[in-house]
Amino acid sequence: MTARFNLQRVLLTVLLLFVAAIVLLPFFWMISVSLKPATEPFSIPAKLWPDAPTFANYITAFRPEFRTYFVNSMIVSGATVAITVTFGTLAAYCFTRFQLNVLSLILGLVVLAQMFPHAAIIIPIYKMMKNAGLLNTRLSLIIAYVTVTLPVAIWMMHGFLAKLPITLEEAAAVDGAGPLRTFFDIIVPLSRPGIVATSVYVLIVTWQEFLFALSFTSTKEMRTLPVGMNDFIGQYGIRYGELMASSVMVSLPIVLVFFILQRQFVAGLTAGAVKG
Is there a domain that residue 276 lies in? Predict the structure, then answer.
């Protein structure tokens, strides 16, 4: 029995390593190309790692325009996370605590809204932004991103808040705490894993979003990082080294955020899946 168990563990470990290699190989290749000189990515035979790694591509990619794109992405993503998580948490709290037929219908519409792809709603949102005179502004991107991320945020927070016992609020009411104080002093601290998970999800979606950013911005001053990376794709060729270097720099903040908050992120995703 022990030998069979050990064999299963070995096979499972080998399978996990194989899957990890397949998943991580594109990222390894991206880093490798970013460290190669301009001619080495096309060398034959291809090399997994450059003979003489260089950071020249990173120095070239980190130009003033890139810093502008980075600031725009930070502002748009940060504002979207703050607005979406705030309203998503409040809406999910109402859905879990007030049992009304109208709210159940609205929650159903929220779930239905998640089924529409971004391409299906970009034209009406574009027309609204144009009529409001908001095209080529960060505000237009924030409104668009909140529109597409808020339904998912409500759904995620609903699953988490539904697990919190209502007896906590009843006990707070007995002690004289009002609804707002109960929400901010009791519900919000207990919901921190769910809030972190929702925030990370919204951050990842908005940080890498391309379609809205491409459609709603027309000048370099308003572009975000995914659109700005197109600068390395020209009419007569692609600067692969600089493109991969910028890709690494774009991915690094999200990777750092995920590793810092990974425990709370996983806890928030699984909390609403188990009834205790």
Answer: no
